[in-house]
Write a structure and sequence with these properties.
Number of strands: 9
Strand order of the largest sheet: 2-1-5-8-9-4-3
Number of helices: 3
Order of helices and strands: EEEEHEHEEEEH
CATH architecture of one domain: Roll
CATH topology of one domain: Pnp Oxidase, Chain A
Oligomer: single chain
Strand content: 35-45%
Shape: globular
Structural class: mainly beta
CATH superfamily of one domain: Electron Transport, Fmn-binding Protein, Chain A
Helix content: 10-25%
Distance between the termini: 14 Å
């Protein structure tokens, strides 16, 4: 089976953020889909089971998603996407504010969405997390696609990402 076909699927790039008892943290995701178009709006994400952010979502039942713009520095993506927040403050050097109790990244994002956890589904190494959209904040900019991240920023997928392919 030629898994190269999976690289033709379109994705965006997002900062998934949580608040762990006053300690903001998060990770980078590229799997976000809108499930419903009328209120209540439900969306789904995919997250590695071992992710600290996943652990916090299951405990707090809340999370936020910042839509990264094409101007997002590679360093921000690396900080949030290539290390665990379990023993490290991943938000150091990233400008953010508290927005309804969740960290909203202020620079180089085209919008922010707040979610309440509805369900999580076990899928082997990952969980599919379904959330209800409860608040939004829209800003300016062009959203970053996963293709842009790979081709322009020259970024790679970490081994924990659902899009990581071992045959590449």
């Amino acid at each position: 089976m030629d898994l190269e076909v999976l690289s033709d699927i379109s994705y965006g790039l997002y900062a998934l953020t949580v608040n762990d008892n006053g300690r903001p943290t998060g990770c980078i995701i590229n799997t976000l889909i809108q499930i419903t178009s009328f209120e209540p709006i439900y969306m789904a994400i995919s997250l590695n089971k071992d992710s600290y952010t996943n652990e916090v979502i299951k405990r707090t039942k809340r999370y936020g998603i910042s839509i990264l713009s094409v101007n997002t520095p590679r360093e921000v993506i690396q900080r949030l996407g290539f290390s665990s927040g379990r023993n490290r403050d991943k938000m150091v050097g990233i400008e953010y504010e508290d927005y309804n109790g969740l960290p909203r990244i202020l620079e180089n994002c085209t919008g922010f969405m707040c979610f309440e956890l509805v369900d999580h589904i076990n899928v082997e190494t990952h969980d599919v997390i379904i959330g209800k959209l409860v608040d939004t904040c829209v800003t300016d900019g062009e959203p970053m696609t996963y293709k842009y991240y790979h081709e322009v920023i020259k970024g790679k997928a970490p081994k924990s990402a659902p899009t990581f392919l071992t045959n590449k």
